[in-house]
Amino acid sequence: MPVVVSGSLRGISLVEKGDPPDILVVKFFNAGKTGAIAVRNDRSPPIAPDRPWNFPPKTLQNVKRTLISPPASVNTQLVNPKISLSRLLLFISGALLAMGIIFLGFRLATISDPYVQEVLALPGNAGRGYEIFQINCAGCHGKFGDGSVGPSLHEVSRRKSKISLIEQVVSGKTPPMPKFQPDPQEMADLLIYLEHL
């Protein structure tokens, strides 16, 4: 299906005396090529390119000449790609800005969570973290975090921040990992242990 853009060409010297009140040239793009058909602006059907046009010969000459090498005014009147491009760039910029604000809002909400703040303020004990890991995590992640059913947790602290690790452990949003809500000290111990994997 061709993309159609139309615009009035009166005043661009395509229209001659005796022509219908408003002549439109419809410029269309199809399969990478540009073409046009002349139509009337009185809601009558368009004059297809494969049928004779009902306009005087001088007008037809002007239309054909314009279609072969259209003046700049025709192109800017029918289609102004600079406006379209600037609107597209404005829309993309706005969407990226909105996504950034939403992401920042979620991060700030997570950081300001009292549970997260308390966990990060506590000193962890790797020995107790190992015990917590063996009871709650080793069944899926392996005895030493090398992965069996669940993924390997070796160097997980290099891939994820402490906040992301806390969120993943307590949220239950990463199936099949179950929701696990250790108290703040247990979570601090588990974080220290995960840093040593």
Our measurement of the CA-to-CA distance between the termini, rounded to an integer number of angstroms, reads 59 Å
The largest sheet is: 3 strands, antiparallel
The general outline is elongated
What strand line-up does the widest sheet have?
1-2-3
Radius of gyration: 34 Å
Structural class: mainly alpha
Q: What is the N-to-C succession of helices and strands? A: EEEHHHHHHHHH
Mean pLDDT: 71
Low-confidence sequence ranges:
1-16, 25-32, 46-53
- Assembly classification: single chain
Q: What fraction of residues sit in β-strands?
A: 5-15%
How many strand units? 3
Helix content: 40-55%
What's the number of helices?
A: 9
Transmembrane segments: 88-109
Keywords: Electron transport, Heme, Iron, Membrane, Metal-binding, Transmembrane, Transmembrane helix, Transport
Organism: Pannus brasiliensis CCIBt3594
Domain Cytochrome c: 124-197
Structure description:
Keywords: Electron transport, Heme, Iron, Membrane, Metal-binding, Transmembrane, Transmembrane helix, Transport. Strand 2 (23-30) and strand 3 (33-40) form a beta hairpin. The protein is mainly alpha-helical and 197 residues long. Strands 1-2-3 form a three-stranded antiparallel β-sheet, with no helix packed on it. It has nine helices and three strands. The chain has helices spanning 57-68, 72-78, 81-111, 114-121, 126-136, 138-141, 156-159, 162-171, 184-195; strands at residues 3-8, 23-30, 33-40.
In short:
The chain has 197 residues and is mostly helical.
What descriptive keywords fit this protein?
Cyt_c-like_dom_sf; about 10% strand; elongated; 3-stranded antiparallel β-sheet; about 200 residues; metal ion binding; mainly alpha; 9 helices; Cyt_c-like_dom; disordered N terminus; transport
